Records
---
Amino acid sequence: MFASISSLQPHLLSLLRIVSSLVLFSYGTQKILHFPAAERVPDVGSLSWSAGLLELVLGFLVLIGFQTRAAAFVLSGLMAFAYFIGHASKSLYPAQNGGVAAILFCFVFLYIVAAGAGPFSVDALTKRKQATA
């Protein structure tokens, strides 16, 4: 049973990459493009706005699977900073300090750095085209 499930691993990696980056990308669209509308948006040039710009641009790159490892590496670091700057000082426990999403994003993107983009990505398409050329 697990052997047949293991054959899905590359496809599930792509799905993990797509879903997690789409969620992070939506934070960037809210902070930078004000979509969907939010009660409070960060001031242009602020730390939160800069994080939103990275979430928007690099989140999109990871979403489509282009330069995935580099973009995911920066996003993993961004989420680590977000956790320690915005959450860790409130409490030791993520469930109490509101940092659950930041810590999960940090480690999901760190995994993507190591695992790559998966088969449903621009990176994989580029690699296939280079192999046939």
Note: The two ends are 38 Å apart (CA to CA).
---
Amino acid sequence: MGLGRAVRRADRQPLRRALGLGLPTVWGAMAITYKMACPLAQQNGFCARIVTCTVFFAVGTGLILHVRTGLRREIRQIRKVAGAAQSVLLRPLPPRIDGLNVAAAQVSADRGASIGGDLYEVIATEHGVRVVMGDVRGHGLGAIGTVAAVLGSFREAGYDEPELGCVLRRLERALARHLRERGRAEHPSSGLDTDSPVAEEFVTLLLLEIRRDGAVYAVNCGHPWPYLLRGHAEPSGVRGRVERLSCAEPLPPLGPFPLPAELPVLHYGQLLPGEGLLLHTDGVEDARDAQGRFFPLRAALTEAVRVQPLSPQSVLSALFSQVLSHTGGMPADDIALLVLRNDRTRVPAQQPHPVAHQVT
């Protein structure tokens, strides 16, 4: 039925174009007929000139309004198509994924664009819930092709690969293939120019795996580490403690350098029921106000998680409101936030020591 509707719409397009041209043609014919055939238009008196000017002013106004209406209709259609394409690329996440409460959103630095150079995705697999958060060099519409290549690869490799490090290697190959294709398209005669933006493009990337017992595994390529959100009461009576998941040195971003031969995927503890994680891009911490001060993400996050119970939606809303207020509603870089909370009720016993998997 969808194909039939598309065919019917295509058949109606010539008729709509003809009707769209019909009204301006009628107005133009009326103006010419008045000028050539109406006796009043041939007179030079003051009243006759006023009437003639009024007629042509009405015709001109009608034409302008008709063109304006047509342009607005075309813009609405273009925005509808662009919104559909963008929602497929960076699709909205479901509120619950395999026992995790999830909320995510992003703001593009380019006006009129719904997505930019930031990417995120959460999928439930037989290996656990896998999460990707990334940031393409630059921002806005120019980075959308790279976002599509990385996300498309993750949505396949995340299900297929048993090890998180193997997922990362698949993403690296997809990015390299995408950059080669862009290089050939932009420099068809000489190949990829080393001074071109494609040659310098890279992606910071964070991959997480949250297993059924709450164990968190991660591999990081130049991306900010997420924050661990503790929403339950602490021994000191303070609610809402915020801390980095890790302070380890990440791997280099994808693109400029190949991944190491041995790729460690480390175990970073347990995500207990009621606890959450905040993943973000560097556009949040690098956001500045009119005086050049950076956005205090940790302080804003600590204040947001004091509201109990911990809600990913409320944390996301509070942070975005503060960031946009801090930047005056005009961030200089793309901003993406992803908040998830463990809503599972049972967690098996935690392993006593961190475990590292070597992927070769």
Note: The longest strand covers residues 128-136.
